[in-house]
Specification:
Blueprint: E1 3-8, H1 10-13, H2 15-19, E2 25-27, H3 34-43, E3 49-54, E4 61-68, E5 73-74, E6 98-99, E7 101-112, H4 113-118, E8 136-139, H5 141-153
Parallel strand pairs: 1-3
Antiparallel strand pairs: 1-8, 2-7, 3-4, 4-7, 5-6
The protein binds a DNA duplex through loops.
Organism: Collimonas arenae
Protein name: EVE domain protein
InterPro entries: 5hmC_binding (IPR052181), EVE_domain (IPR002740), PUA-like_sf (IPR015947), THYN1-like_EVE (IPR047197)
DNA sequence: GCCAACGTTGGC
DNA sequence: GCCAACGTTGGC
């Protein structure tokens, strides 16, 4: 069992949006970074814990809890000429971009980026490191415990 | 294989 | 809208 933090722009897909979907599940389309792709393709397991993070918005932070809900499969948007995620170098025989399904479990209170930075036990979190832009990052078991404990208290 | 140019992310 | 950081591209 591993843990992850996955960023989504709430204007695109917020935790509320995903909870409103059938099965509360969304294909995590649009990742176009190899490191992030490799986490989905090579490292994620069904049932892994996911911190659902809102980025590119007024108050960025953790907005919900989710889980990995599928094994990896090709991201369809890479083949779609009309999609902004279309990749001319991808083809169906050798898909370049893989994704997993993510099932939203619950909306939480927002733990803002500023609040995360105040937490000494989270000092080494990938998301808090200078210049980090990766949209998917591993979360340690200790970091996961700290954050979920905090959510239960509040 | 180097590296300059360019594009993107994402907080502020 | 700005800009720092960093990934990707492509000429050489």
């Amino acid at each position: 069992m591993n843990y992850w933090l996955m960023k989504s722009e709430p204007d695109d897909a917020s935790i509320d949006d995903v909870l409103a979907l059938p099965k509360q599940t969304i294909a995590w389309y649009g990742v176009r970074n190899y490191q992030a792709r490799n986490f989905m393709r090579d490292a994620m397991q069904v049932g892994d814990g996911v911190l659902f993070y809102h980025s590119g918005c007024a108050v960025p932070g953790i907005a919900g809890l989710a889980e990995v809900a599928s094994t990896p499969y090709p991201d369809d948007t890479q083949f779609d000429h009309k999609s902004k995620y279309f990749d001319p170098k991808a083809n169906r025989e050798e898909p370049r971009w893989m994704l997993v399904d993510v099932r939203a479990l619950k909306k939480t209170r927002l733990i803002s980026l500023a609040e995360l930075r105040e937490q000494e036990p989270l000092a080494d979190m990938r998301i808090l490191q200078r210049g980090n832009r990766l949209s998917i990052t591993p979360v340690s078991a200790a970091e996961w415990r700290h954050i979920t404990n905090k959510l239960m208290k509040a």
